[in-house]
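Encode chain A's predicted structure.
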Amino acid sequence: MLNPGHRLFRVLWRSANAALLLSVAALVYSVGWEYSVRRYLDGFSDAIVPANVPPERRVEAILGWMQKGPARSELPVPTGLAMRDPQNTLNYEQLLAVCGTATNAFLNLARSSDLEARRLLLLTPERNTKHVVAEVRVNDRWIVVDPTYRSILRNAAGETLTVSELRNPQIFAQAAARIPGYPTDYNYDQFAHVRVAKLPLQGLRLRPLLDFVFPGWDEKLEWSLLLERESFFALTVALSLTVFFLVFRLLLGRYADRRLKIPRFRLRSHLLRAGEAFFTTPEIK
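Encoded structure for chain A:
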């Protein structure tokens, strides 16, 4: 009869195996999902972005398609659409008119056109998001692009601008004056790449903690893709769970071997024996 420790181990072992199988199945599904999304975006970007042109021309081609592209679908109530599905953000007029989803559409096409791009959140003094734009790396500078207004922000001389330059009120006024109807409160006094205040752990003051442990974390890590593409988010979660349950299972197995001395089914040894039986030439007596 098994003692309580052995019974608990059996429960944990079987639960870990079941969780690992489910996470692997989710990983396989999410890999296929992300692959199909990337194929779709590659075909989309190939159709609207000329090949072998400088990065700034690629940005302008994407903005031109957003501004003057073909007729798009409309829904009376678009709230039922998945806001982080590229097939929705690229094909519904209402989503291309909202700063968050318009920026998602732009970023997905930009990456499929071999551009380095990331989102940028403009914040109010209370650190609420008031507008969403994009940054694109062009000639080793992160220039600011506003997909909602289909514009690259430029100064009076027509030169592209970075965030640090747009924090100058005079330069920002020049950039805003070049775009018809551009709100002057969309300034760059406060901004962020990730809004940790939207997370359920807001009370733990995550941003000061992350800033202390990993300075520049919101710029050095690729957060935009997690926020703007559901398939990539699902892939990241499934991969993380698979690694976690695989490590947990290995630790459980080591504990069973060294402490509990429980004989268990060893998949690797059985596979090796099956391989030997399959490839070994039978002896004729």
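The two ends are 45 Å apart (CA to CA).
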